[in-house]
């Protein structure tokens, strides 16, 4: 009895010490005033069935902790097939074998949500166009039409997906590909307009290590590098550093990323560390966190923090990925941390806003302000 009381007391004292240390750590790393702690370069207001919080509810979740947010829907709608799922209505792409399809209305939904805000509230968002099929040569026409219908709103395109576990194969019709000229057309147009691009492309096939494919490098690495290199005028954020649910960082992966970020041919390329599954890889061990911190410190201007939140139900859900990265924020030097959490976003999206508004002035009859 006494033994267990002592053990509990020791645990309690240990927990109190940890809370204290956590507090000191966070207090050192993060701002003391009302300045935001992060800008979020990757956020879905809606989920795979186009549902999510009202944008004003989301503003409350952001509170003072999130400053600005790149906001978009999800281009792919999960079909509810009664023949496949009966009364069990799927809400996520993994909930059903029924297909996904491109749902272009997502862009109008996001634009109308944004337009319903006050000017001060709008200033905190960078809406993105996502509702196009990247295997379709007409995708560019959709993007142009959205810009003309909702001038003064959008800063970029994405997140759109080329290769992603389960997702790519669930879309009927031609499978998206890095070799498709339709993708080049989209990236050329983004470069011409100044739209920032958020591109999701898994760097490898699912579970490559576990199924012992034995390839010297990840399946899509050379193709993605070729695409990034072909569009030097286009600012491209490679989402999740190419990692995914079934694509853990292969051995030495960060040195391959380091190679890309060190090469002047890729000066248009950024990477984001969004998504809880990606955070999990980088906080799994002290070494993993230190390796990521070292890569960031070598290229402090090229990494962006994002949550990859999708239709969060409350503030704690929304903030979870930022909190999950606490070991990273403690490991980074203050200047790099500030760039990754705040300043890189401001630089990339301020420039995108400026250039897209400028393009709109020449291509759209009447233009509102962002
Ligand atoms: Zn995402």
Layout: helices, strands, pairs:
Elements: H1 2-29, E1 38-44, H2 55-62, E2 66-72, E3 76-78, H3 82-85, E4 100-102, H4 105-115, H5 119-122, E5 125-129, H6 139-149, E6 156-161, H7 181-193, E7 196-200, H8 221-230, E8 236-238, H9 253-262, E9 269-272, H10 276-282, H11 286-298, E10 303-304, E11 309-310, H12 315-324, H13 326-331, H14 334-363
Parallel strand pairs: 1-2, 1-11, 2-5, 5-6, 6-7, 7-8, 8-9, 9-10
Antiparallel strand pairs: 3-4
The structure holds zinc ion.
Describe this structure in words.
The chain has 370 residues and is of the alpha/beta class. The protein has one domain: TIM Barrel, CATH 3.20.20.140. Helices cover 45% and strands 13% of the residues. It contains 14 helices and eleven strands. It has helices at residues 2-29, 55-62, 82-85, 105-115, 119-122, 139-149, 181-193, 221-230, 253-262, 276-282, 286-298, 315-324, 326-331, 334-363, and strands at residues 38-44, 66-72, 76-78, 100-102, 125-129, 156-161, 196-200, 236-238, 269-272, 303-304, 309-310. The strands form two sheets. It has a nine-stranded parallel β-sheet, with helices on both faces. Helix 9 links the parallel strand 8 and strand 9. Helix 2 (55-62) crosses helix 12 and helix 9 (253-262) packs parallel to helix 11 (286-298). The longest helix is centred in the C-terminal third of the chain and has 30 residues, at 334-363. It is globular and about 50 Å long. The protein starts with a helix and ends in a 7-residue tail after the last helix. Zinc ion (ZN) binds next to strand 1.
